[in-house]
Design goal:
Glutaredoxin, seven-stranded mixed β-sheet
Length: about 160
């Protein structure tokens, strides 16, 4: 049996994995600034939320998981507001679709038309949730669907 520890492919794979983990570890870093249009007008910058936490939910209209998760977040909106947390859906590239999906929801509806904010937050798949603290630093970041209990925990 060959000694696997001497196989260069294993070492290369391990190095790539470590690099990717470190590169995407956003927690604790200052959140990148952004200037996004509201789907119904107005401009929102990260500074608009300074002094209170904000949960950014990056999504697009073609994402079925996103369409399922947004109403769950909306059901937690009142509780989040009482805790001083703002929730903002950030649609990537589709103003009309964002308006249609978000119309019945209470969440702040932002549009990242050119995807620049998504790139600055390393969004490689949606949904991506980024919780930014009142201090402007990233407290939590995760891609993929979260259940109601996990979302409630994030919003405390």
């Amino acid at each position: 049996m060959a000694d696997r520890s001497s196989n260069p492919l294993i070492w290369i794979a391990a190095a790539v994995a470590v690099f990717l983990l470190l590169r995407h570890n956003e927690v604790g870093r200052q959140a990148p600034d952004f200037a996004l249009e509201g789907a119904y007008g107005g401009e929102y910058r990260l500074d608009s939320f300074r002094g209170k936490p904000v949960l950014l939910v990056f999504w697009n209209t073609n994402c079925g998981i996103c369409r399922h998760e947004l109403p769950i977040l909306d059901s937690l909106y009142a509780e989040a507001s009482r805790n001083g947390v703002e929730i903002a859906g950030v649609n990537i590239g589709d103003v009309d679709g964002a308006r249609e999906v978000m119309r019945p929801l209470h969440l702040l509806n932002l549009v990242d038309e050119d995807g620049s904010a998504a790139r600055s937050y390393s969004v490689s798949g949606v949904p991506k949730l980024v919780l930014i603290g009142a201090d402007g630093k990233i407290w939590r970041s995760a891609s993929g669907m979260r259940g109601e209990a996990a979302l409630r925990e994030w919003l405390r």
